[in-house]
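A protein record pairs a chain with a discrete description of its three-dimensional fold. The following entry can be read in just this way:
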Amino acid sequence: MNIICVFIFLIISLLLIVNFKCTFMVVSACSMVLGCMNGVGPFGMYQAVSIAAFSIFMLRYFYWKDMRTYPLLFSSILLIVSYVLSNHYAVYRHYGSLVSCIVVDVASLFVFYQIISKNSRYIFIYIRTCVILSLVVGVYTLVETIISSNHYMFIVNSLELYSQDIIVEDIRFGMKRAQAIFGMHTTLGGFSTMMAGLLLWVRLNCPLYVKKLGKKKLSIAIGLMSIAGFLTGTRSTIAGLAVVLMSFFSFKHVKMKYVFIAIVSVVIGFMALDAYLDKIILSFTDTESVGGSNTDMRSIQFELAALFMMQSPFLGNGISYTFEYVADKYKEMCGAESLWIPIMIDFGMLGITAIIVFII
């Protein structure tokens, strides 16, 4: 157990006791960074903090009547049932992981909703933290790409603060794949996509928040997160980011005076980044043209997922079965980053149904 991580956990826990709601919103915004860190005992930092936060919430702020107005009550119960039954009938039972899954995936969202539904000012605290973190991560991503090195990760790994001792040095599309302050480049990809989508939604729909945060600062954060998504070199991130950004397109937001500027900018961008963009496009049409995963690898992974799912089609094989057993036995499962592969294997049809209902 890392003494620095324990100290960080104690500081956050103390802040939760002193000012629970503000601290919880900041922690929620920083969840992907905390999720990379070692924590206390068998739990990672974000898991440990979430358990501490949920315990404090239940003791000080929980009322049974709040359950009746929670819009995700049915899907939350379904997801909990899926976790409990899958773990109970699993080959290897993980009660600690069961607790952390329920708290992180279900209970934390309930706490988040209860806080913002009773006082909307905490939404602003969450968004402001997201903006600040996006600016920090975005700027550091540019620095990492320019100097082709990640000094932050060297320091973090030397102190053994993160659960994964990984420094990404792969080159894709002619540049080092950025990971910024996260344990993996894919984590940066997920973070940048979510932040770009969230902050763009705020920019278009929340004029009061835009005024408080500053239009220029918010626009810079959105731009940096969009660029960071590309700099990860992760095709799923680039595709996801494109879908997220295009979903906001609306003709009512288009002003004719900007159409010419946009067209010229796109043409110049394609001319200046022709080789870079060609490599990205080719990587989608010919998945063997770049290193990393390809179509054949993903097909094998889904075939293996279907094979192991059929061992227990309804309940699955239990929490962490994918990475503790399947990935250890079949090297093809290393890098199985799709959400659905571990869900298929670990939680079966009940888990798949619960996740879909939860998302919807």
Q: What stands out?
A: The chain has a mean pLDDT of 86.
